[in-house]
Design brief:
The protein is mostly helical and about 350 residues long. Helix content is about 75%, strand content about 0%. It is built from 14 helices and no strands. The chain has helices at about 5-30, 35-40, 45-55, 65-75, 90-125, 130-145, 145-160, 175, 185-195, 195-235, 235-245, 250-285, 290-300, 305-335. It is globular. It starts with a helix and ends in a 5-residue tail after the last helix. The model has no long low-confidence stretch (mean pLDDT about 75).
């Protein structure tokens, strides 16, 4: 199968998955108890005002009609209006998503850059004390709950050592003296574009602990899978033949072995995106990071349905897109995948 046909099949499957996702998001959020119309009108609302709001929001129509209207708005890029703030959800998400993706992408890059070499080192030193240490450390990294790890990092690096700030994205004083100009939504990029280097280094300082908390789990997964996948490849006949012909171990592991072991590693990297997007909810709540997780928490507390639907659909869409992109990359790396 050609790469073009493979990509087209993935895109067709992507559309189907997004449609299924829209159904699940719509009907699950409709099952949440509470009067959406009363929340939209506000406190001390009269029954006739609530009824007018119900008609205005289309809640008086059958559920199927409501879903079709929701899909019609969704195709136009309209995710509704927040019942709490009366702001378009799409506008809110456009501000919040980059702040979350900033943490997720940094954590993923760090996990890959550290996880693959650690796993390769463990495979090369199989059976030695270094292999055992790496296996124990990566097992612990995978096992520690994210909320416990985040609180532990705050306790050690803020409370005991005082090296990093407790929470937030920028020092409160710098919010007034060196505010971040919103250009792309990514703090690192925006501060560099505007040459706001004071804010750049302060944001980086605030990011260290959240990124550490997010990185540890995926790093452990990637390192362990790299080790097992590499050891499996190194037992193949062509590797044994190359070793017998005098090819050095370094070339065997990192030129021939790692390349052929990349397919399952890429799979777990793709799955790590979903893992990180889920964990960013806990991290943002603990570190008071103003991203999509913190936004969803406020929506949950106030029973604000449109933002919840927007967050759920967006997270699901990011996961589906990331996995489809990962499948295409795997196809490029390993042509044997059909």
């Amino acid at each position: 199968m050609s790469l073009t046909l493979f990509t087209l099949k993935r895109l067709a499957g992507l559309i189907g998955l997004l449609l299924v996702l829209s159904v699940l998001v719509f009907f699950f959020t409709r099952a949440i108890p509470g009067d959406v119309a009363a929340l939209y009108v506000g406190g001390n609302a009269k029954p006739e005002q609530i009824e007018q709001a119900r008609i205005a929001l289309g809640l008086d129509k059958p559920v199927v009609i409501q879903y079709l209207r929701y899909m019609g708005r969704l195709f136009k890029g309209d995710l509704g209006v927040s019942l709490r703030t009366h702001r378009p959800v799409l506008k809110d998400l456009a501000e919040k998503i980059p702040m979350s993706l900033e943490l997720v992408l940094l954590a993923l890059v760090v996990a890959v850059l550290l996880g693959i070499p650690l796993g390769g080192m463990a495979a090369i030193k199989q059976g030695t004390w270094l292999d055992e240490v790496i296996k124990w450390l990566t097992a612990a990294a995978v096992s520690i709950p994210i909320f416990f790890l985040a609180l532990l990092l705050q306790l050690v690096f803020f409370d005991q050592l005082g090296w990093f700030p407790l929470q937030g994205r920028l020092d409160s004083m710098l919010e007034f003296t060196h505010p971040i100009e919103l250009i792309t939504g990514f703090s690192f990029v925006d501060t560099l574009i505007s040459r706001n280097f004071t804010a750049f280094f302060n944001v980086a300082w605030h990011m260290v602990l959240p990124v550490m908390a997010l990185t540890l789990g995926p790093l452990g997964f990637i390192a362990r899978l790299t080790r097992s996948s590499l050891l499996d490849v190194m037992n193949q006949d062509y590797i044994l033949a190359a070793r017998a012909s005098g090819v050095s171990e370094g070339v065997l592991y990192f030129r021939y072995g790692l390349r052929n072991a990349l397919s399952p590693i890429l799979t777990v990297i793709g799955l790590s995106v979903a893992h990180l997007m889920l964990n960013t909810f806990f991290v943002e709540m603990i570190f008071n990071w103003p991203g999509i997780g913190y936004y969803a928490l406020i929506a949950i507390n106030s029973l604000d349905i449109p933002p919840l639907m927007g967050v759920a659909f967006t997270i699901g869409a990011i996961y589906v897109l990331a996995n489809n992109a990962n499948d295409i990359v795997r196809r490029l790396v390993d042509p044997r995948i059909k």
